[in-house]
Amino acid sequence: SVWYARLIDLARRLPENVILTEISFRPVLEEGENKPEVTINGNMVMRGKTDDITPLDNLRISLLESIPMAFRYSRLQVESNSFLEEKSNTKIVFSLGFYR
C-alpha cells in the first residue's frame, strides 16, 4: 500500500537512461545507527560526449520533492558513484540512501 505508492512514484520519476538494479530495505535500525533505511542501486549510460550526469541529479532532486518519500525520509544521500568506460559509452554506477 504505502510502499506500492512509493515504488510507483519512483518509477514515474526515472529518466529514460537510468536503470535501477536493486532496491534494499533495512526494516530495523539500531538506536543511533546512521545507515540508510532504503538503498537504491542503479546505473546510467552516457552515450557519446553530449550526455552528462544531469538526469541523475534531477532524479535525486525529484525524489527529495516526492510526497511519498519526503513524508518518511528527511535525507537522500549519494552513498557511492563510479564511472566505468564501456566501448564508446560511459556508465555511472550509483547508490542512493534514504535516511529517516
List the helices and strands and how they pair.
Blueprint: H1 2-13, E1 18-25, E2 38-47, H2 54-65, H3 67-70, E3 75-86, E4 89-99
Antiparallel strand pairs: 1-2, 2-4, 3-4
Keywords:
100 residues, alpha+beta, 4-stranded antiparallel beta sheet, 4 strands, 28% helix, 41% strand, globular
What does this structure look like?
The protein is of the alpha+beta class. 28% of the residues lie in helices and 41% in strands. It contains 3 helices and 4 strands, in the order αββααββ. A 4-stranded antiparallel sheet has the order 1-2-4-3, with helices on one face. Strand 3 (75-86) and strand 4 (89-99) form a beta hairpin. The radius of gyration is 14 Å and the shape is globular. The model has no long low-confidence stretch (mean pLDDT 85).
The main pleated sheet reads as: 4 strands, antiparallel
Strand proportion, as a percent range, falls in 35-45%
Secondary structure: number of strands: 4
Q: Count of helices?
A: 3
Distance between the termini: 19 Å
Using only C-alpha atoms, the radius of gyration works out to 14 Å
Largest sheet: spatial strand order: 1-2-4-3
Shape descriptor reads: globular
Helicity, as a percent range: 25-40%
Low-confidence stretches: none
Which class of secondary structure composition applies to the elements? alpha+beta
What pattern of helices and strands is seen along the backbone?
HEEHHEE
Mean of residue pLDDT values = 85
